[in-house]
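Technical appendix A lists one of the benchmark inputs used to test multi-chain prediction within the project. The record comprises two sequence entries:
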Amino acid sequence: MQELEKAILDKGTVLPGNILKVNSFLNHQVDPALMYQVGKEFADYFKEFGITKIITVETSGIAPAVMTGLVMNLPVVFAKKNKSLTVQDNVYAAEVYSYTKQTTNQIYIEKQFLNSTDKVLIIDDFLANGEATKGLINICNQVKASVSGIGIVIEKSFQPGADWLKEHGYQVKSLARIKSLANNKVEFKD
Amino acid sequence: MQELEKAILDKGTVLPGNILKVNSFLNHQVDPALMYQVGKEFADYFKEFGITKIITVETSGIAPAVMTGLVMNLPVVFAKKNKSLTVQDNVYAAEVYSYTKQTTNQIYIEKQFLNSTDKVLIIDDFLANGEATKGLINICNQVKASVSGIGIVIEKSFQPGADWLKEHGYQVKSLARIKSLANNKVEFKD
């Protein structure tokens, strides 16, 4: 997606440790017009998939997910994060390990918002190791809901998440795919 | 706002302790079409205020704020929450007390995303005691940015936040104003 790649090149910052900061349009400041374009791209790609519900994880997934929901006219559920790992009865929960922070969080969705007939589109801002996405898949599996598609704003293709998802048969659409962040330079996969 | 009041009556749940749960369209599951209507209402009300930036607090403020930003064609910054109260150099921070959770969190915005020439519209999902809103005002005051307006999705008018803001000269627009949640019943202020 050209506008997105341009925003990454113009406004992103590469930090040591393969970190791409896109705080100025996605993770802290949000560019709503760009997020709407992101939503249109996902809506267009997944329009024939019979999606019934969009899910994401708080916080940075919310903007692209609600814009996708707006275009597709679908409800969006954002999984909440919980530091304490006490599982409640009324939620589906999964553990998510963060490589960046080296901590394990619980994410959860209230049972009333997901059911076995749902065809779910998972949206997230970043895909690197895929831990958050796997957590959402885990929740869908508990519900026996179908994971019909996965929409990622920025994929770090050099990290294992994207390959893992594809090898396991998931339909992944990433709007920007980054091949390398070596030498503080963003290189896209064509 | 009629659609919003209808959603509150049809889908909201009143819990003991004056708690209104609107998890099915605002705080956990989000109704993007309704949030877009919310954004249009705010955009219409604040259109002559010369707003340059919209700010909110993660997590539940993000959906209404980005929809407002979409309609007004303005950037949105969501303040992040931090459990640890270590202040970093590159951020403006404020402490926010949560009456519900009885904890104090720090919220912060990176300095690069707010400056003294900004005319800020603060958006939040709920206004009760007004602690989160006061935290955002505190941050704007540190930057010497103007707080040009405050847009609230659901105001609990029987709690002190709304009156405090108005008494201090802030321009507050609340789309649903709740007079009482007594006897588990939602009563709107006309």
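The CA atoms of residues 117 and 154 of chain B lie 29 Å apart. Chain B touches chain A through 30 residues (CB under 8 Å). Comparable benchmark entries are summarised in Table A2.
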